[in-house]
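**User:**
If convenient, please work through this fold.
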Amino acid sequence: MSERPTAEGPAACTSHAVQGNRVSAPADTVERALREAYVLVDSTMSTHRSTERQRPVVMLGEDSGSFRETAASLIGGAKYGISIALLHDGPRADAILTAVRERDSRQDGWPAGVALRLLCAPKVLGTTSVTELTRHASGVEVRISAGDLYEALIVDGSSALTWSTQSSNEELATLVTDPATAKALDLLYANVWKTGRPIPEYLQIRERLNTDMVRRVLTHLKNGHTDAVAASEMSVSLRTYRRHVAKLMRDVGADSRFQAGARSVELGLLPRQP
């Protein structure tokens, strides 16, 4: 009885891997496939290393750069638009607004069509930085918002600088260079911008609402009192009270009564709780 021949080497692997094919691949074909695989792996690793060097999100103050330098660089390279959102004054707000004024005062000025938008909380309105910006920078549009707002600098909808008001580190901030992430921030900004009010309109509303009657209504809204309780305490009819509430909600841009009470605090119409 004769022994069956046994397969050895790469040909055996090939015969098991490819059903119905008993012919082993030529050595040069295998070598060429291995070389192509090596080139593919090397290219993938190079791309990964490049991505690491150009991370889409960088923490300033920990990795590299300074807040002032980064803000000035972003603003200096703007081609289409600059959107700024400020909740507080301070060194970071000063750095951004100073960079805008300096870019505006340069001999070449802004490229044609660059939109400058500043959205700020009511308490930032009277600060020196904002006053100087509105007085000297050309073409800047300022709106006051009492809605949800995050501090940010967004340039051309493709890069952004954000920071936390909770951080005491003046250099600590997040630089976003990923276009998709920056675009998402830009869309969020646009939604809040729609609810903001130009300075003259905001001042008119604040003056019109700054009466004893309005403050009493706002206090009831802020505390969540029912219409019946509020009307009784104010010695007015339920219908009259509700008419005041409807007008106030329109003026402060609120969607609910509780929100109207909260907005009144943000607009400076009521004092904040200690």
Notes: Residues 58-197 form a domain with the Endonuclease; Chain A fold (CATH 3.30.870.10).
